[in-house]
Amino acid sequence: MFTIKGKTTDWELVIGLETHIEVLSNSKLFSGASADYNPTVAPNTQVSMVDVAMPGMLPVLNEYCVEQAIKMGLGLNAEISRKSKFARKQYFYPDLPQGYQISQPAEEPPIVGRGWVEIMGDDGQPKKIFIERAHLEQDAGKLKHDVHPTKSFADYNRTGVALLEIVTYLNTKDPENNSYITSPDEAERYLREIREIARALGVSKANMEEGSMRADVNVSVRPVGSKEFRTRTETKNMVSFKFIKSAIEYEARRQIEIYENGGTVSQDTMRYSQADGTTSVMRSKEDALDYRYFPDPDLLPLEISEETIERIKKTMPELPAATRARFISLGLNEYDAARLTESTDISKWFDAAVGDKPARAKPIANWMISELFAHPENWDVKNAVDTSESGEARIITPENLAELVDMISANEINGKQAKEIFIKMLDGESGTPKEIADRFGMKQITDTGAIEKAVEDVIAANPSQVEQYKSGKVGLLGFFVGNVMKATGGKANPAVVNEILKQKLS
Questions:
Q1: Which of 105, 151, 138 is nearest to 30 (CA)?
Q2: What is the DSSP string of 73-132?
Q3: 84: burial class by Cβ within 10 Å (0-12, 13-18, 19+)?
Q4: 267 to each of 26, 190, 270, 274, 287, how far by Cα in Å?
Q5: What is the pLDDT along the chain (506 residues), one digit of tens a residue?
Q6: Which of 234, 290, 225, 237 has its CA nearest to residue 265?
Q7: Which string of DSSP letters, residue by residue, matches 367-397?
Q8: What is the DSSP letter of 34?
Q9: I need a labelling partner for 232 at 20 to 30 A (CA). Which of 127, 326, 392, 422 fits?
């Protein structure tokens, strides 16, 4: 259990996350304007009359965004509500032209109901994190404060883009029947799992760097062993795993200090300072009543049929958790399986390289994680096409890596030669690994007669080391192996060299 030591007692954390992911779609949630708000797009060029609340403009629900929400709900093992409503949530911010946000009210069933995702807990055991709901709403615009020295500007390109807000569940009525996030590391694992599910399903890019995934972090603390849920604070719009963990730790220590000095924590909305890793009060936290929800009169209740849900289920790909389990069954450890499921494209690349030979799985994983991940410019994870040209980085394909691994397995080359071939591929050398090996004479010597001759020559040239080895300094075996490999130009099979040396020296 993650705990923080106070002056007089140990404290534990209760963490809730509200994760916003922007839904991938061509057009916005309630208008036909493009949902592409890429920074390279000129400000206020992807905006319709609906988005900027021109008089008489009526919203029309985007069916595809609803289907994307259903798909994500199924990926979260969640209930899909057959009926739900949209309401107006009152905000009066310059980046929200309507003066309200079209969302789904907390007291009404959302599109996605109760669900769960599984992460690895701090104790090393699988842990279910319960989800309260996931609802559709429209995003706000973006204020720009660095364009003019005295004025702020509003860019409404993002206004109306579909957001899916995923809220974790805390069972305050039955504290014994709970499973929630209790540490910064668990918060990161949960958010990464949400991200990978969204990406695998094609629901969202879920890219924190560009803002298509962000999280509001709710934190409260209590003495270890207590069942009381104390007042929480909410740190808004976090867009970095690193900063989320930092904000959780700082906010927890801030609250502990308040309690230990006899004070009380107020329910506030916090801002996080990236410069010094601190949180500070932005405003008092709103409750649902403050938003003055009321049903949107321009939108009919949403009804979802069983046929729609079943149709979407049939399009569902393998989810990251199932992919990780499959990779582990191939002999990978949990770390390797996690790295290879960071994106669907990486998982597909790995599967393509392994092909129908499970024995390739572990060496392929090792090469990908230790070598290819360090050279992202040298492998096209999406297209996997060999486009090597003179002067350009070589694009290594799954077939290339599979062939290299097979050559090692068949004792055609040793590990040192494989690395040399790999480097030549990185440097743009054309051809398959076998063709490169032939071109540069990198074939492993497996002829025991030739190796035996080299071994005998090395032993004859080093009588002093032979006597030391025979007197008990068995660590000198490496000295002999190195000299034999040097004598054979690094082409001898190391396993055969070791075996013959041990025979000769004994």
A1: 138
A2: HHHTT--B-SEE--EEEE---TT-TTSEEEE--TTS--SB-SEEEEEE-TTSSEEEEEEE
A3: buried
A4: 38, 24, 9, 22, 10
A5: 799 999 889 999 999 999 999 999 999 999 999 998 887 889 999 999 999 999 999 999 999 999 999 999 999 999 999 999 999 998 888 889 999 999 998 788 999 999 999 999 999 888 999 999 999 999 999 999 888 999 999 999 999 999 999 999 987 776 666 689 999 999 999 999 999 999 999 999 999 988 899 999 999 999 999 989 999 999 999 999 999 999 999 999 999 999 999 999 999 999 999 999 999 998 776 665 677 888 999 999 999 999 999 999 999 999 999 999 999 999 999 999 999 998 888 999 999 999 999 999 999 999 999 999 998 888 877 654 444 444 455 789 999 999 999 999 988 888 888 999 999 998 889 899 999 999 988 877 666 787 888 888 888 889 888 888 888 888 888 898 888 888 887 777 777 888 888 888 87
A6: 234
A7: HHHHTGGG-GGG--TTT------TTS-----
A8: B
A9: 127
Q: What is the largest CA-CA distance in the chain?
A: 99
Contacts of residue 190, Cβ cutoff 8 Å, sequence gap at least 6: 17, 117, 119, 129, 168, 181
Q: Token match 């599984």: residue?
A: 118
Cα–Cα distance measured from residue 495 to residue 78, given in angstroms and rounded to the nearest whole number: 53
465: tokens are: 């080391």
DSSP SS3 for 233: strand
Residue 468 structure tokens: 């030391």
| Phi, psi (rounded to 5 degrees) for 267 | -80, 95
